[in-house]
Amino acid sequence: MSGSLLLQSVILGLLLGGLYALLAAGLTLYFGVMRVVMIAHSAFLILAAYLAWWFQRETGLDPLLSLVVTVPLFFVVGFVMQRLLLARLRPATLTMMSVLLTFAIALTIEGLLGYVFSGTQRRIQLDYSGSSLEVFGANIAVVKLIAFGLAAVALLGLWALMKLTRFGQALRATIQHPEAARLLGINTDRIAGFGFGLGLATAAIGGTALSLDSTIYPSLHWHWIGPLMAIIVIGGLGSIPGAAIAAMLLGVSQSLLQVPLGTTWAQTVFYIALFATLMVRPQGFFGGRLAQRF
Amino acid sequence: MASDAPAPEYLLELKDVEAGYGRAALVLRGLTVQVPPSSIVCLVGPNGAGKSTVLKVASGMLTPRSGSIRVNGVDVTRNGPQDMIRSGLSHVLQGHSVFKEMTVAENVGLGAYTVRDKALIAERTDFVKTLFPVVADRWTALAGALSGGQQKQVEFARSLMVSPQVVLLDEPSMGLDPKTTSKVFEQVVRMRDAGIAVLLVEQNARRALETADIGCVLDLGKVHITGPASELLADPQLAELYLGGRPAAVPTT
């Protein structure tokens, strides 16, 4: 592998890792707030990508502008979904039942996308779709940089929200000790709903970023959920920094392995890392001290 | 302290309370507990007597099926946790309930979640820092990194941020060694001396009664005996039944 190819792979891996990190942060939020395994996260990701594509096709405006609508929309949908569906699951079997429930939601979204937009593969064509930057001989597509920037800004915003605001403190308190939080007067039910809304908002941002340089089709979400689940287990369930670190590492590994192995086999890195984690350190590599921290 | 309206005799009064979980049998069967101002009232009794349930009812986590709860003479029977805080109650859970991955400062700050007045929050922060020096010393540390006894003090400090009239303490000595337990009980006395009434539930009955002003012996969801804690401690029959053996030495006062 030549030096510039190596550099290119690492950069592309980091850019992809940023998107993984944002989406994994969302998954981690659902799990932290209410021990929910949200299979439909990536279906919402693809839904947001479709909305961005549709918005661009209908209005001719930049797909990034669709965020103005999709982020608040997804936040509200997440809140309503948590309040009306997930909060009604029996606490004793919540985690397991949440898999079934969100699996059904994922299938519903996939079916609706197929029905409304057909199974045809779609791709956004932009003026800047083809442009790229050259960094030390490595070619980096501008759209990938924009997608990464979007993910990074969103993650930073999420961090600031969790760390610096009263709501973020209440959310972290609810994750760490729900009963104590309730006794301090925190409305933990509502906070959990907002937490879910935030998680889904990451899917909206991620989907828009994804739409910039990916070909999308209704069943694409199945390619995403596996790696994302692997990332949050490796990072330590409930740990947002853990998920971000795991996302970056695996993004780079995947990108590097693509050169000798091809795209399909490179994806197996997630599952190999998952198996290794479960054998060596089932609590995840950052699940100890970093867990639940932001 | 003379005012026109007579001050209610009790800051917190649970009267003939019946309560239970779901459709299961009642845990509290006509329980009456009264907490006068500036006193430590201690509930003792065997496992399953309903001690923790009393606190859950008082803090609005569990709604009683019948009976009444009054804080400062005002009926608050149907209030949820948020309203109970506003009416002057604060509840410290058993075991460790600090937010471990947050700093001591953040923990204490969250104690004032329902308080909007910035000046009042600053005033309360100074108050709890003075009352619990360890809180001030470890202000920027992660709460989970503190020892068990220190975490308890952070929990106490957190519960005092809302300027409660009565603090409900559920088994503050749970999981602590005897030396740390003594230290924690010292802090409970300091809370009382600062003018806060305490309703205390303890497994470690003898130790708790030594600290308390008033003792209530609870069994099968009812208070069987209420009296000055020192008298309960001195009663050989009670000691036999609930305090694990005869009193070691009866104080002659």
From TrEMBL, chain A:
Compartments where found: Cell membrane
Single GO term (MF): transmembrane transporter activity
Organism listed in the record: Nocardioides lianchengensis
Listed name of the protein: Branched-chain amino acid transport system permease protein
Family: Belongs to the binding-protein-dependent transport system permease family. LivHM subfamily.
GO biological process: amino acid transport
GO cellular component, one term: plasma membrane
Membrane topology according to the record: Multi-pass membrane protein
Keywords of this entry: Amino-acid transport, Cell membrane, Membrane, Transmembrane, Transmembrane helix, Transport
PANTHER family: AMINO ACID ABC TRANSPORTER PERMEASE PROTEIN, BRANCHED-CHAIN AMINO ACID TRANSPORT SYSTEM PERMEASE PROTEIN LIVH
Keyword Membrane carried by entry: yes
Pfam families: BPD_transp_2
UniProtKB/TrEMBL annotation, chain B:
Record-annotated membrane-spanning stretches: none
Protein name as annotated: Branched-chain amino acid transport system ATP-binding protein
UniProt entry tagged with the keyword Transport: yes
CDD domains associated with the record: ABC_TM1139_LivF_branched (cd03224)
Native organism: Nocardioides lianchengensis
Stated family: Belongs to the ABC transporter superfamily.
Protein origin, superkingdom: Bacteria
Biological classification of the source: Bacteria, Bacillati, Actinomycetota, Actinomycetes, Propionibacteriales
A Pfam family assignment: ABC_tran
Family matches, as SUPFAM superfamilies: P-loop containing nucleoside triphosphate hydrolases
PANTHER family membership: HIGH-AFFINITY BRANCHED-CHAIN AMINO ACID TRANSPORT ATP-BINDING PROTEIN LIVF (PTHR43820)
